[in-house]
Design brief:
Family: Belongs to the ABC transporter superfamily.
Radius of gyration: 25 Å
CATH topology of the largest domain: Rossmann fold
Structural class: alpha/beta
Organism: Bifidobacterium vespertilionis
Shape: globular
Helix content: 25-40%
CATH architecture of the largest domain: 3-Layer(aba) Sandwich
GO molecular function: ATP binding; ATP hydrolysis activity; branched-chain amino acid transmembrane transporter activity
GO biological process, one term: L-amino acid transport
Number of strands: 20
Keywords: Amino-acid transport, ATP-binding, Nucleotide-binding, Transport
Length: about 600
């Protein structure tokens, strides 16, 4: 059930244009709908009012006098480079942080300084940048949790839960009704089931047959869809979406955009943080651009994206990322017969001049590589997740592992790190078999990881996070000197050394994840989606840092990345996974312009 728009002029504007995105005929209809909607919502009541909002961390003014209004039925997007204050702003609005000063009102009711549960009870629902679902619960159970705050029969004494001394009373009441539900509780359960079914129906092609599956078994994109459904089920006054398409490929992004356009057409009020400008422009009524904690532009999407100050802050000065094929001190890498070239030469079929178009099932890597997977099979129960996968990573090279969601990329990473164990095949590192070695043993021998969504320790300081990266090293190993080197390589981290890592921007957390991995003095780093959720400017910075690991430190990199062109732009070699098999492989320069990559990358994969 969608939130109704009471303002008559907004009704009139919506009724006079086709509101279903697929019904709009061409650019003219889209522009007419967007323009009419943009003007109409400004006459609707204000749902969210923010005035002179401020927040500082250890002297850093993260949010500086931010003010704006969000009207009923309006969609506003916040854009800006990482570290501009976007995440801090929405964390203040949703109660995850308390402001130093300023006003936050929802429906003219002050909420600044209230806790996240209290603000949620007042009609706000949100998703998170890195995606947060309960992995041990099913899709249906995750979605139904979003309606918990609206329950009445199942939550006796819920008004007492904010009092610490007696909050056990509502918990005891909920437990009792869960064990012995009364008639009112049973009726409420049926209503929740109907609402869950309706939310799943929005993503029926993706989630329809996965309702009873645990969410840890889902692909990243399907976990994000589950999270959006969980936020929407409560029919919130304000829906706050933090990077809802982060980690999704183009087709998945387009699908989510269509769902969000339906929510907009139905009158939902949405505050969106997003880096994908095309999505922002297609969805938003107005856009806020931030930099340095301040709002530097506000207005129509096209006007803001063309604003010179926004272009300079958000995109930065574009530069060519350094692309070399050999690490410092490793100038003879390509002169030697490395793993991938040797595999191509031995296995290339007659009449096929392009090694990048080969399928490599069952191919045996040569022994000169730093790391190899040889004909590896991995299962999740009865699901054959990796099927005869063979990969080689030469010393001092960047290898990109590409593919759509649920293609097997993350499973490959987990297998290399010892978090998953192959049923068949071997993993060789520095010429020795590590197939059955523990994760700790692999880290000690020089295999490090930068996991998906960073996975820093949010309640620990920056320096404590860095020290955790050296946990396998003895205390006598001059760890303090390496911390100093990390601060020299990442000056931003030195400025925030005593700041809680969870309060930093996504880009700063990515820097910290890199530095933490380097603290183990690795020979190879496995990176899972290192550019996910980052602004274009910071994406270039991250890619340059990855190239530097190879060029200056001689560290090999195996990089999982959704965005094929970005990954191949700095890589030496690439593999394309589809449905758990290697479908393409070869030199990155060849794969970058090979049309078969797009076919294998976007087509045919069955989603988890």
């Amino acid at each position: 059930m969608s939130l109704p728009i009471s303002d008559s002029e907004l009704h009139e504007a919506v009724d006079n244009v086709p509101i279903a995105p697929e019904d709009l005929q061409g650019d003219a209809d889209l522009e007419t709908f967007a323009e009419d909607h943009r003007h109409a919502v400004l006459k609707a009541p204000v749902v969210l009012r923010v005035r002179e909002l401020n927040k500082s961390f250890e002297g850093l003014h993260a949010v500086n006098d931010v003010s704006f209004d969000l009207h009923q039925g309006e969609v506003i997007s916040i854009i800006g480079p990482n570290g501009s204050g976007k995440s801090t702003t929405i964390n203040l609005i949703s109660g995850f942080l308390k402001p130093d000063s300023g006003i936050i009102d929802i429906d003219n009711e002050p909420v600044a300084g209230l806790s996240a549960p209290e603000i949620s009870e007042r009609g706000l629902a949100r998703t998170f940048q890195n995606g947060r679902v309960f992995g041990a619960l099913t899709v249906d159970e995750n979605i139904s949790l979003g309606f918990h705050k609206r329950l009445n029969a199942q939550r006796p004494f819920k008004s007492l839960q904010k009092y610490p001394i007696i909050r056990w009373l509502p918990l005891l009441g909920e437990t009792a009704l869960a064990l012995v539900p009364g008639p009112h509780t049973l009726r409420e359960n049926k209503e929740v089931d109907k609402r869950v079914e309706r939310e799943v129906d929005r993503f029926k092609e993706r989630l329809g047959d996965r309702r009873g599956d645990y969410t840890y078994t889902l692909s990243y994109a399907n976990r994000r869809r589950t999270e959006i459904a969980r936020a929407h089920i409560s029919e919130p006054k304000l829906l706050l979406l933090d990077e809802p398409t982060a980690g999704m490929n183009q087709s998945e992004t387009a699908e989510v955009l269509q769902q969000l356009q339906h929510l907009k057409a139905q009158g939902h009020t949405i505050l969106l943080v997003e880096h994908k400008i095309e999505l922002v422009t297609a969805l938003s009524d107005h856009v806020i651009a931030m930099d340095g904690g301040r709002i530097i532009a506000f207005g129509d999407p096209d006007d803001v994206r063309r604003n010179p100050e926004v272009v300079a802050a958000y995109l930065g000065k574009r530069r060519e990322i350094r692309k070399t094929t050999a690490a410092a001190g490793q100038s003879d890498v390509l002169a030697k017969q490395n793993a991938i070239d040797a595999v191509a030469a031995v296995n290339e079929p007659a009449g096929s001049p392009d090694s990048a178009a080969l399928a490599s099932d069952g191919k045996k890597p040569v022994e000169s590589a730093l790391l190899t997977l040889d004909n590896v099979d991995v299962y999740y129960g009865q699901v054959h997740a990796l099927q005869g996968v063979s990969i080689s990573v030469p010393q001092g090279a960047i290898v990109s592992l590409l593919g759509g969601n649920a293609s097997g990329k993350s499973t490959t990473m987990k297998t290399i790190l010892g978090l998953k164990h192959p049923k068949n095949g071997t993993i060789t590192y520095e010429g020795r078999d590590i197939t059955h070695e523990s994760t700790r043993g692999r880290v000690k021998s020089g295999i490090a990881a930068v996991p998906e969504a960073r996975r820093i320790f949010p309640a620990m300081t920056v320096e404590e996070n860095l020290l955790s990266g050296a946990y396998t090293r003895p205390k006598s190993d001059n760890i303090a000197a390496d911390v100093a080197l990390m601060y020299e390589r990442f000056p931003r981290l030195k400025e925030r050394r005593t700041q809680q890592a969870g309060t930093m921007s996504g880009g700063e957390q990515q820097m910290l994840a890199f530095a933490r991995a380097l603290m183990s003095r690795p020979k190879i780093i496995c990176m899972d989606e290192p550019t996910m959720g980052l602004s274009p400017k910071l994406v270039e910075d991250v890619l340059e840092q990855i190239a530097t690991l190879r060029d200056e430190l001689g560290v090999s990199v195996l990089m999982v990345e959704q965005q094929a062109e970005l990954a191949l732009s700095i890589a030496d070699y690439g593999y394309v996974l589809q449905n758990g098999r290697i479908r393409l492989y070869g030199k990155a320069s060849e794969l970058l312009h090979n049309p078969a990559v797009q076919e294998a990358y976007l087509g045919g994969a069955v989603e988890d």
